Amino acid sequence: MRRSLGKWIILFLFLSILVFLGTSDLTMPGQDEHVNGIADKYAQEVGAGEREPYINTDRGDLLLFVFALGGATAGFIIGYNWRDIFGKPSAPSKYQIVKSSH
Amino acid sequence: MHIAEGMLPATYAIGYSVVASGFVAAGIKSLSNKSKEIPMIKQLTGVMTAAIFLVSLLPIPVPITGTCSHPGGTPLGAILLGPWITALISMVALLFQALFFAHGGLTTLGANTLTMGVFGGLFGWILFWGMRRLKMNLFWAGFVAGTIGDITIYLGTSTQLALAIHGSHPIGEVFWFIFGAFLPTQAPLAVIEGLFTGFVLKYIAEHRPDILVMLRVLPKSALEVGQELHATAEGVN
After folding, report:
1. Are A90 and B210 a contacting pair at CB < 8 A?
2. Contact check, Cβ <8 Å, B178/A57
């Protein structure tokens, strides 16, 4: 009961944060882009600087497509193997009895 | 952190790639050796590669700063598979991201592999075993390794960039400018990465402790004591 309530509270907090972010004025840029932007000023001075990737998938919804596809593929690989590896408890799975000693 | 394509002058891009390729080669050798001893190492390596690919591409919003960033996942990889294999799988994950996800770059692949795969993994691994020597339990040792390992990735990136692009500016000034830009967003995410690392280790220890023994994360005695208590609990003895 307590665990179930905890899950609902976490879900509520998660959705609340999403609603807050979605209705605020925050632009939520990626930190990598932000720092690359700062570093680019220095890089220009030494003859380097950010340029387009060789294969640029950052075009409209194409990036959304590859992110969704990549996430789904990685998730499938993890889920498939996770079930195989961790789904079956091993015989001495009473580690929790001794976990306090480790 | 993904240093963007073209950001590094050619000499530094090549230099970082040469150093990173040494660690990647060590990873190939380590994986080859371990696959002879540990039957499921390839399966676990596949899971960790997919996990590192996923978490290092996952933009997590940090409402306090109004920006998004991602964890590294490499401290956990290094604890489970060792730091050398982690360097190898980070390179694979970063290669896919550079090729198809407009994240990082081919000319900066060596630099990004060094920071995420080597600095994050190696320091996470050293910290984990340091904490274990100090008798810290599995969760907290994982937490310290994950948190500080994550910050180490960004210390590494700031150092790499400062060395390569400082030009006429003092290296220290460029380093602190870049690291200072990382820290407000990355510090809360480092704590999340620490918690994630600790919880995954705790989960495996509770569900499949034999895997941690097999990977030499836990001593064999952990399993033997567990078996004895299991038998006692079931009334066999």
Report:
1. yes
2. no
pLDDT band at A94 (very low <50, low <70, confident <90, very high): very low
CA B6 distance to own-chain centroid? 24
Contact A95 B137 (CB under 8 A): no
Put simply, the answer to whether A30 touches B67 (Cβ < 8 Å) is yes
What value of ipTM does the predicted structure carry?
A: 0.81
Nearest residue of B to residue A34, measured between CA atoms:
B181
| HSE value, Cβ hemisphere, 13 Å, CA-based, for B122 | 16
Give me the DSSP letters along A37-61: HHHHHHHHHTT------SS---STT
Query: Residue ranges per domain, chain B?
Result: 10-233
Please give the class, per CATH, of domain B10-233.
mainly alpha
For residues B192 and B63, what is the distance between their CA atoms, to the nearest angstrom?
Answer: 14
Q: Which two tokens stand for residue B171?
A: 């290296």
Give contacts of A 7-36 with B, CB under 8 A: 17, 20-21, 26-32, 34-36
The shortest C-alpha distance from B21 to chain A (Å) reads: 21
* Distance from C-alpha of B130 to C-alpha of B118, rounded to nearest angstrom: 17
pLDDT digits (tens, 9 = 90+) for A25-71: 888 888 888 888 889 999 999 999 999 999 999 999 999 999 999 99
Amino acid identity of residue A4, one-letter, is: S
Question: In angstroms, how far is CA A67 from the centroid of its own chain?
Answer: 11
pLDDT digit string, tens, across residues B190-225: 999 999 999 999 999 988 888 899 999 998 877 766
How big is the A-B interface in CB pairs under 8 Å?
200
